Amino acid sequence: SDEIDCGNVTCESDHFQCTNGGCIPTHLMCDQENDCGDNSDESELCTNLTGACGGMYTSSSGVIRHPQSGGNYQNNESCTWIIRAAGVPTITITFNSLDIEVGFDVLTI
Predict the structure, then answer these.
(1) Quick one: which of 55, 75, 76, 74 has its CA closest to 65?
(2) Are residues 67 and 52 in contact, defined by beta-carbon separation less than 8 angstroms?
(3) CB neighbourhood size of 25 (10 A)
(4) List the disulfide bonds (predicted).
(5) Fewer CB within 10 A of the end CB, N or C, for the chain?
C-alpha cells in the first residue's frame, strides 16, 4: 500500500482525528453515522447528544441555549455539550453571562 511509512497524519483544525488515523469534518461527529469507519466519531461522549438536549460546540465564542427552540424543559434535566477547539490541548472557558430562568437557560461564552 502507498500509506506505509507515511508518518503521523495531522488533521486540519476544523476536523476530528479518528482512532484509525483518518480525519473527518467536526460537524460529522455525533451524527449517528459511522463517518470514521471505526465508529470513533460516535463514542460514548455522544450518548447524551442524540436527543434534544446538548450538542457539539466548535465556535470560539457564542451562546448555548436550552431548550434551543424555545419551550420548557423538565426539572433536573441533564444536558451534555462537547466544546471542541481544534489544534489545542486545553481550552479556557470564560463565562460572560449565565442566565437561569424558569424553563429556559442561556450561557454566553
Answers:
(1) 55
(2) yes
(3) 14
(4) 11-23, 18-36
(5) N
DSSP string, 93-108: ---SEEEEETTEEEEE
What's the domain count of the chain? Answer: 1
**What was the pLDDT predicted at 37?**
93
Range of the domain at 81: 15-108
Tell me the pTM. 0.43
Three-state secondary structure call for residue 6: coil
For residue 10, is it within any domain?
no
Cβ contacts of 1 within 8 Å, gap of 6 or more: none
**Do 48 and 55 contact (CB within 8 A), yes or no?**
no
Distance CA 3, CA 90 (A): 31
41-53, pLDDT tens digit by residue?
887 656 544 445 6
In a domain, 63, yes or no: yes
CA angle 79, 82, 84 (to 5 degrees): 160
Separation between Cα atoms, residue 28 and residue 34, nearest integer Å:
9
